[in-house]
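Per reviewer request, we include the raw input and output of the structure prediction for the construct analysed in the revised manuscript.
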Amino acid sequence: MVTKQTRCKNQIKSILSFYGIHIPEELAEGRWSKRFINRIDQIRMEKASGNLSFKAHLDELNHIRGIIANLNKGILILAKTEEYRTNIRLLKTIPGISTLSAMTLLTELSDINRFQSLDKLASYIGLIPNTNSSGEKDNKTSMTGRRNSILRTLLIESSWIALRKDPALLMAFNKPCKKSAKTKAVVRIARKLLNRIRYVLKNQKEYITAVVE
């Protein structure tokens, strides 16, 4: 549903761009609040066909948002059940992890013990670089295409949040930023976050800031 919502937003932005209507970048790229959606709902195109298409996409977006809201409510209720309650509490001790993200982690990973090492877990999610081998030389490129896209996206987004809450992660982030782009540096943070998640679930212990790395 989140993927459908993103696609719908992109379609709306494309229509507005086609008709030369500008949306501030900070609003277009961020979370679309109800107030923001109501604001763009007041926009009218030069042609009736444009208005029809634009309204159809807005209606679809509002429909998807309603479904997501109901799913989130259901997830929050499920998080309080005996099956998930303990692990949810433990995961939420990690900066950047919310109830919803914890539930996604638990349902997607199923059993953390099926991954024998952090490398195997990172490989499953897609937080390892591609390696092109040529003779005795290995060339590391961008992240591997083999991945669980749901978890990789979740960990990247959670990492941005964790950077605002954890000084140790921020320090680890700032150092590589001097040599590479922030979008690449945050991948390292996502791997550190994944290490914390693995530690908490395997040991059934709360995370203590700046102790587990």
